[in-house]
Structure formats: structure tokens, C-alpha cells
Amino acid sequence: MLIGENLHIISKQTKEAIANRDENYIINNIKKQSQNGIETVDLNIGPAKGKIQGSLKWLIEILQHNFNLNYSLDTTNFEEMYEGFSMLVRPDKCFLNSTSADDDKLEKTTDLVSKFNSNLIALTMNASTGIPKTPDERMELAFNIIEKTSLKGIDNSKVWIDPLILPVCAAQEQAIVSLETIRMLKESFDPEVKTLIGLSNISNGCPNELRAEINRTFLALALGCGLDGAIIDAFDTKTIEVYNDIRKQRVTSVNTEIYLKLYEAMQNFTDIEDIKYDKNNKQQHRIIRCAQILLNREIYSHSFV
Fold it and tell me: Which of 108, 145, 270, 297 is the most buried (most CB within 10 A)?
């Protein structure tokens, strides 16, 4: 399951469009995401202060009128979040993005999710520890989250645990920790919980010409570990193509075949060193090198390709 990340106030242009209630800009943005096959769109309005205040209701009103999509409501303003969910036609298909494992935040968000029967994106972090450095520490927070959602009668299938991804250029050793956490999350709960990542985080801070390759390779590895969903750059059609090829177990090009082989290696616990590929093909070599870096077998540098 893919969630499009391209409507967010981190973008100056998007922030201005939301502040000025530029309906055409918003519709064109969502239309492009939808045309690329995205069925769920993240609506990121941050803390919703100043001119952004009240924008979630405005966004949902015009988008539900123009599109048949589901939405991930992404704001730290709880009142704005509640008002947004109150307007949704299908809140049970939509997402609250997000909660941490902090007790006070968990209490408020699980109450809202329980009321609207929506999906919950939950991060394995809290205020006191930040993002834990080991899979076991992240799992401890995941168990705390599921204990709370279970008390509120929220089914595990509605809970999407985010093991959190750190940039490979800043914390290379943490990429494999996130992959291992995904495996543990899928094995530790009955019924299973869902797993979801913010894919672009893995390449944050890397040169722009490397980011898409890193994202696609990590996506293939994570899907092989049992990943259920990702928040992605919905304008990157090649990443969506890789996702669809893996999901449908098909090969549409020589290069996407390598991603499928990486997925199968992670799924079957086999060594990526055993993957056969054309070493004279620069693109295939890039993908394998990238996988070796993400699995912490080679040292990352901006010039690794």
C-alpha cells in the first residue's frame, strides 16, 4: 500500500498554495498523484498555525468533491485532526499520521482512531529515548503501542507500525536495524500488525541524483522483510513501477528484475552475493552496490556509484 507524500507544507510552493487557498494548485497536485496510481494521499499541514489554520477541512472538502481517494491526515494540531476526521466520507479507510509511543499522545490518538475506526500510523519512538538504536528497543515501544490499541478495541490490522528510517548518509548502520525491526514486527504479533515506512527518509541528505536509486533499492529490501506500506514520492513513477513489479511478481525490464531478486533474497534469507547479474551493466551494478551499502556491507559515500 502506497501513500503519496507530495502535498506537504515543507514545500514553500505548497505551503503558499494552502495558505492562499489555491484550489487549482491542490487539485493539480492530487490529480498527478492519482494518475500515477496512488490511492491514498498524505495531507501534511504541520502544526496548522496562522494562515494554515483551518486548511485541513478546506482540503478535505475540495478533494472529496473531486476525487475518489483515501487520505492520511498529517498534523500535530489535534483539534485540526479531529475536525478533519469528522468530515471524511470513509474515515475507516483513512489514516491518522501519526502517534509516538508517548502515553499522552497515544491516549488522544487512540481515542480518535477508535471513534472513527480509522487506521493509525505509530512511530517506534518517544520523547525520552528518541529513536532507539536497536531492533529490541524499537520492539519494546511497539509492544507498548499495541497494548494501548488493544485496550481501546483497535484491531491490529488497523495499526501500522513505523520502525523509523534514518538517512543512510548519516547513520548507515541503522538501515539494517530498520529492516530487522520490520521482520520482528511481522513475527511478534497475533494477529499481525501492519508495517509502514517513510521511504524518502533513507536518502535524505544524499545527492539528488542518488536519492531515487537508494529509495527503490531500500523499498525492495524492505518488502522482502515483510513491509506492508510506504509513504513515497508519488511523482517518481519508476519507484512505483518497482513496487508494482514486486507486488505482482513480474519483470518489465532487465533492471527491475534485479529489484525482484533483492526482494526474493530478503524474503528467503539468502545472500545477495549469490544474485547473478550482468556486471557490465552499469545500472545493475549500481543497484547491487546500493543494496550492499544499505545492508552495511560497504561504506557509503556520495560517490559510491
Answer: 145
Q: What is the pLDDT of residue 89?
A: 97
DSSP assignment of 70-108: EEEEEES-HHHHHHHHHH-S-GGG-EEEEE-S-HHHHHH
Contact call for residues 66 and 268 (beta carbons, < 8 A): no
Residues 278-296 have pLDDT tens digits of 989 999 999 999 999 999 9
Is the dihedral angle over the CA atoms 239, 211, 159, 53 positive or is it negative?
A: negative
Mean pLDDT of the chain: 97
Per DSSP, 236 falls in state: -
**∠ Cα 155 160 163 (to 5°):** 135
How far apart are alpha carbons 268 and 78 in whole angstroms?
A: 42
Evaluate whether 159 touches 121 at the Cβ level (below 8 Å).
no
Q: What is the pLDDT of residues 142-153, one digit of tens each?
A: 999 999 999 999
Q: Please give the Cα distance from 279 to 264 (Å, whole number).
A: 20
Residue 279 burial (10 A CB sphere; 0-12, 13-18, 19+): exposed
Q: Are 175 and 168 in contact (CB under 8 A)?
A: yes
| Distance linking the first and last C-alpha atoms of the chain | 30
For residues 305 and 200, which has the higher predicted lDDT (pLDDT)? 200
Helices 23-35 + 55-66 axis angle, to 10: 50
**Residue whose C-alpha cell is 501500522:** 160
C-alpha 189/C-alpha 185 separation (Å) is: 7
pLDDT given for residue 106 in this prediction: 97
pTM over 0.90: yes
Grid coordinates given for 77? 494540531
Phi and psi of 70, rounded to 5°? -110, 160
